[in-house]
Each structure stands twice: as C-alpha cells, then as structure tokens.
Write a structure and sequence with these properties.
Layout lengths: L5 H5 L15 H9 L2 H7 L8 H11 L7 H4 L6 E5 L4 E5 L7 H11 L1 H6 L6 H14 L2 H19 L5 E6 H8 L4 H4 L7 E7 L4 E8 L5 H17 L5 E8 L7 H10 L3 E2 L1 H5 L8
Parallel strand pairs: 5-6, 6-7
Antiparallel strand pairs: 1-2, 3-4, 4-5
C-alpha cells in the first residue's frame, strides 16, 4: 500500500460539519415554550399595566401556578432562583412556593421583569419566550457538534453495508461477546474504555473512535497521545483492530502529536477518507 503523506492528508480537514439543525433546534424550542403557554398567556395581562404590582399579586393569588414561568422568563432552566440583596440571600422556589406573593413581586421588580412588562417593551410573552429559548438552545451547539461527527460516521458505516455494528460499547462487553483479550488496551482491566462504534466482520472486530475539533487546545494533544497508545497496544491483539476517525481545523495547531499517531496507525481516517470509501472493505 502506498505510504500516505501527512501534510496532504491534513489539508483535507474541514472547518465545520454543521448541519441545518446545528444552529437552533426549533422543534425543541417550540416544545419548551409550549410547556409554559398557559402561564405565559395569563401573565400577558400585565403588559402595559398601570398598576402592575397589584395586578401581579391578584394573578398569583388566583393562579399560583403561573409563578413557574418566571425562571423561564429569566432564561433559567431550574425551578429555583437565588438572589442576594444587602441584607440576605433569598432562594425563590417555583415547584413549591416558599415565600409570600409579595416577595415574588420583589423578584419581578428587581430583576427587571416588571419594567419589561409595564413599559410595553414586549407585546407578547409567547414571542419573548421564543426568543429566550432560541438563546438558550444555541448554548447546546457544542453538544450537538459532538453528535454530528458520530452521526456522520454512522451514516458511512451504514452505506458500507455492515449489518453487525454497535454504538458505545465498552471493552469488557467486547471481550465477553467475542472472547477477546483486550487487557493490553484496558491496562489489565483498570480502564473502563468505551468505543464510539464497534464493527464485526467475519474475521475481525473493529473498535472505532470518532471526534471533530473545530478549534485547538490541550485536549487534542492528550487525545492524540491516548489513541497512539491504543494503536500501538492493539497491533498484536488477534481478532481486533483499532480505527480512529477524526477531522477539524483545530488539528492544524496541534498537528505534531497527530502526526505521531498517523505514523503508527494505518486506520486513521478523516471525513474525506470516508467519502472515498475507507470503511467499505474492512476484512
């Protein structure tokens, strides 16, 4: 097999694998807002109020469950809010009310929610909540980005036609299922290593790790060293091979350690390798 050129291989790395759902998952946004639709519509009565504190207290006394939408209006996921003034700390609870309604009115005033409502800075709390939820949902991009690479790799596993593959499989489960000795990788059983994917062919078990790094950092060097160790330790294990699939422009600032792994692991692939059929002919 022709020896691959590392710099040429690295030049194919991509700066993003974002799909359409990466930026905002609107299905989740709508679902989260729907949970508070009744309470938000009740609180809409306060928009433009000339006597907002009295009307708020009237609402809370008549519909106390309306309070549970307040954390949401403040872009807080928890049903508990801590607030410190010059005298003491308050712990506002919303699953079970723990203060008089008047104290929750203090929270509304001091956090700026009364000002938002009485000065007509919003025309609908449903619309406002959608905006809040979009902002909160955008914070999940990092987690969605982590799953994007796994989804992409899985799509190529399926295209390659492998019927027997597994997601998130631990070393000890691999050993038990196929009677393999992976102690060289696990440090004689001291590691709880888990592979993102495992493919079983007629002759071999393939343990696959996947990741994508859009930006650099110390974690990349640690990852490269760790996978280099797995590559070296797994070479002499009968019936098992290690595959690492990685990509992302972050590696271009940490390429020295990546090259060390590239030099010892033939089954180190990027997305372009997958598109060129790298997974199609596993023996």
């Amino acid at each position: 097999m022709e020896k691959r050129n590392f710099e040429e291989w690295l030049s194919n790395f991509r700066n993003s694998i974002a799909n359409y759902k990466y930026y905002v998952d609107f299905d989740i946004v709508y679902e989260n807002v729907e949970k508070f639709r009744v309470e938000l519509n009740i609180m809409n009565a306060l928009i433009g109020s000339k006597n907002i504190e009295k009307e708020f207290l009237d609402i809370i006394k008549e519909y106390p469950k309306t309070l549970k939408c307040i954390p949401f209006l403040l872009a807080v996921r928890r049903l508990e809010i801590l607030a410190q003034d010059e005298d003491m700390q308050y712990i506002y609870k919303f699953a079970q009310i723990n203060y008089a309604p008047e104290q929750y009115a203090v929270l509304m005033r001091e956090t700026g929610l009364f000002d938002l409502l009485e000065n007509h800075l919003v025309s609908s709390l449903i619309d406002y909540a959608l905006g809040v939820e979009v902002g909160l949902n955008s914070n999940g991009r990092k987690n969605r980005g982590g799953h994007l690479m796994e989804d992409l790799v899985e799509s190529h596993i399926k295209k390659a036609g492998y019927k027997e593959y597994y997601k998130e499989m631990y070393l000890n489960d691999i050993e038990a299922k196929w009677d393999l000795d992976l102690s060289r990788i696990s440090g004689d059983g001291t590691s709880t290593k888990r592979f993102d994917f495992v493919i079983k062919t007629d002759n071999m078990v393939y343990g696959i790790e996947t990741n994508f790094y859009a930006s650099g950092g110390s974690k990349l060097n640690e990852t490269a060293r760790s996978y280099k160790m797995i590559a070296e330790e797994s070479k002499d294990i009968n019936g098992f091979k290690f595959i690492w699939i990685t990509d992302g422009d972050g590696w271009k600032s940490a390429k020295r350690n990546l090259k060390e792994t590239f030099d010892v692991l033939d089954n180190l692939y990027c997305i372009k390798d997958l598109e060129d059929g790298a997974l199609k002919n596993l023996k």
